[in-house]
Amino acid sequence: MRRFVFCLMLATAAVVTAGICRDPICEFTFVIRRARSMTYRGSNGKLYDVALNAPQLQIVENSYHKRDDDDVMIGTFVNSSDVITVDGFRRNLIVVNDAFPGPTIEVMEGAQVVVRVINDLLTEGITLHWHGMHVINTPWMDGVGYVTQCPIPAHQSFTYRFKASPYGTHWWHDHFSNTRIDGLFGLFVVHRKLPSLPEFLVSVQDWYHIPAGDGELVSPNRMSFSGTGETYMSEDHRDMAVDRSEVTMRRYDGSLINGRGRWNDLPLPLTTFKVKTGQNYRFRVTNTGSERGFILSVDRHSVRVVALEGVDMAPIPVDLFMIFPGESVDFEMATNMSGGQYWMRAVTLRHGKGRDPQPDDVINGVKAIVRYEDVTGDAEPTSRPRDCTSAQPCRVFNCPFGGYPDSEHKICLKVSDAHIDVASDDFRTKYGLTEQPAVEHFLNWNGIVGSSVNARRFVFPKIPFFFDYLDHIVSCDDQKCDTKGCKCTHILDLPYNETIQMVFTNYNLEHADDIEHHPIHMHGHNFAVLAMGYPTYNHTTGRLMSVNPDVACSNKLCSKASWRDGKTPFLNLINPPVRDVVIVPAGGYVVVRFRATNPGFWIFHCHLEMHMMEGMAMVLRVAAGRVPRLPRNFPTCNVFDWTSDEFEGYQKSSNSTPLQTTRSLQSTNLHWQNSRYFI
Ligand SMILES: *[C@@H]1O[C@H](CO)[C@@H](O)[C@H](O)[C@H]1NC(C)=O
Ligand SMILES: *[C@@H]1O[C@H](CO)[C@@H](O)[C@H](O)[C@H]1NC(C)=O
Ligand SMILES: *[C@@H]1O[C@H](CO)[C@@H](O)[C@H](O)[C@H]1NC(C)=O
Ligand SMILES: *[C@@H]1O[C@H](CO)[C@@H](O)[C@H](O)[C@H]1NC(C)=O
Ligand SMILES: [Cu+2]
């Protein structure tokens, strides 16, 4: 089976619309199963390990297949397109329709998208979330385990059906546990009109050599039963960014562009984008990774950021831009070189290690190749990144901090420096920019009491919110939460069609050293980004000095806050950018506004996988009275319990009464079964 990357490699300069479904109903079937990288299935049906014998892949011995057994396959060379190479490390991963990453969906805005999901995993339940889709009128199609649906059990099937809206650069991924980081994801583009430029889709991600389940098991920060901490670095060894924020606790293993990278510089195939001179190209980039943001650039080319999550912005010329997990950034690039080949670079924010990070020569990242037509042969680019100088400093978009040390000659642009390309009256009404917000919520996202929002670590309900969930959640004890922190099912009510202003803060006054930026993702809505406030930083070292003074915390955990002296900072109410993920700077804030027009239960969370799993999430209960009814036969999942008397009653009566269904047992004993949704 061909992998997704090859579609990209074959894409040429012609405007590629072949992969776009233009029908009013677009149907897909996803068969999800586990596989292993760096293995090859022989024509004899056996699965063999392969290794690089540069430049080819060769079948090698392992404990099951030995040359001594006269296995004639050992030592033969295989075509790399028949092997999921990834970065050359052999591990258990997830394939969808035999592809890693999973298939891309490309449809026109407004199409009905149908995805039949067949869960052929051995044991795990899954759900698929259509990241960026608002699933209007069908909020239970949002694919969030125990929020909008029961997980799809192993060996079962579930069909998602929703309207492709809004248009943009999106993706889809598991949203029950953390299997998206094993490969259960793919890209998802919704076109408003057929592309006028040739396009490339780019997935950039960090990649770990320990499967997701094992990674979770050893995590020292789980909601319960903290693990032993292998693959988590002590503070002295953690990757730190230039402002001294922590990149992540997780040990770096590697990164991939469209599923390809190079562990230990193994000369494995990289993703190649074939271009022609004198064209304009659109690259739609999504960070599909779990923990690390990336800084992207293309050697010898300057790029224009033209869209965020695929929503068009006034173009911003930059040399580099950052992209954090969950975010999408589209850029355009003119191929104005006469020929040759150039590196596309994606490097993490690592600047050094430990609490006092000094720059070293470790560069964590991955490359892809931009290759002009004239290039033949196998040689790779020798291009170098542009030097940033005082005469010609580099412009960097989407910084989570105020700036770099002056000596680096890099100018930071905030996401709020972007502008929507057409700021119509409709646009301003849609995002509530023409009126005072009905409510304003301050939400503090950080690790102040473990990963939390306003010191509340999210506990998932035991049944999805579309059922009678109230007896199956852990209510928040506000007094306790605001003084000591807590674990609870944190719900925020938003009234229908009101203008909501939110201030995402990231203030950790308790541990001023513990700083980290969080990409916050809202389901069901996107929002206008009206302002971003950075902390102050030292222009010599680049390090964070003090938190932004605009916000005043009323308690130590900063779960209650307000504008200092009632003074709101400058808000762009004219032409702000719109997105559904935004990075919240450590020691700073972001102000967003939207209208709560989509009734449902929407999870709202940090898109760093570990933080999400550890409780940095909450649920927006939008227009509770207007939430649409579930469709017939929507699957239920139960908390089953019965008393010993009931049990004994069954023992006694079982000889005399005919077989009862469990349904009649449950409906007499568990009151939540009386839900109007129960079928
Ligand atoms: C490897 O497979 C690809 C895709 O099927 C094919 O185009 C290519 O010619 C093959 N290479 C070799 C050396 O057989
Ligand atoms: C290509 O365009 C970039 C950005 O506008 C410019 O800096 C560079 O000099 C151009 N290169 C050539 C060969 O024209
Ligand atoms: C929401 O409110 C706005 C502003 O009052 C109004 O223009 C719009 O029609 C309302 N939308 C709905 C769906 O009620
Ligand atoms: C910035 O850091 C440098 C080097 O550590 C130090 O000398 C200087 O005093 C700092 N500046 C401020 C304003 O703290
Ligand atoms: Cu986070």
Automatic annotation (TrEMBL):
<dbReference type="InterPro" id="IPR033138">
    <property type="entry name" value="Cu_oxidase_CS"/>
</dbReference>
<dbReference type="GO" id="GO:0016491">
    <property type="term" value="F:oxidoreductase activity"/>
</dbReference>
<keyword id="KW-0560">Oxidoreductase</keyword>
<dbReference type="Pfam" id="PF07732">
    <property type="entry name" value="Cu-oxidase_3"/>
</dbReference>
<dbReference type="InterPro" id="IPR002355">
    <property type="entry name" value="Cu_oxidase_Cu_BS"/>
</dbReference>
<keyword id="KW-0479">Metal-binding</keyword>
<dbReference type="InterPro" id="IPR045087">
    <property type="entry name" value="Cu-oxidase_fam"/>
</dbReference>
<dbReference type="GO" id="GO:0005886">
    <property type="term" value="C:plasma membrane"/>
</dbReference>
<comment type="similarity">
    <text>Belongs to the multicopper oxidase family.</text>
</comment>
<dbReference type="GO" id="GO:0006826">
    <property type="term" value="P:iron ion transport"/>
</dbReference>
<feature type="domain" description="Plastocyanin-like">
    <location>
        <begin position="232"/>
        <end position="354"/>
    </location>
</feature>
<dbReference type="InterPro" id="IPR011707">
    <property type="entry name" value="Cu-oxidase-like_N"/>
</dbReference>
<feature type="domain" description="Plastocyanin-like">
    <location>
        <begin position="481"/>
        <end position="623"/>
    </location>
</feature>
<dbReference type="Pfam" id="PF00394">
    <property type="entry name" value="Cu-oxidase"/>
</dbReference>
<feature type="signal peptide">
    <location>
        <begin position="1"/>
        <end position="18"/>
    </location>
</feature>
<keyword id="KW-0732">Signal</keyword>
<protein>
    <recommendedName>
        <fullName>Laccase</fullName>
    </recommendedName>
</protein>
<dbReference type="GO" id="GO:0005507">
    <property type="term" value="F:copper ion binding"/>
</dbReference>
<dbReference type="Pfam" id="PF07731">
    <property type="entry name" value="Cu-oxidase_2"/>
</dbReference>
<keyword id="KW-0186">Copper</keyword>
<dbReference type="InterPro" id="IPR001117">
    <property type="entry name" value="Cu-oxidase_2nd"/>
</dbReference>
<feature type="domain" description="Plastocyanin-like">
    <location>
        <begin position="84"/>
        <end position="193"/>
    </location>
</feature>
<dbReference type="InterPro" id="IPR008972">
    <property type="entry name" value="Cupredoxin"/>
</dbReference>
<dbReference type="InterPro" id="IPR011706">
    <property type="entry name" value="Cu-oxidase_C"/>
</dbReference>
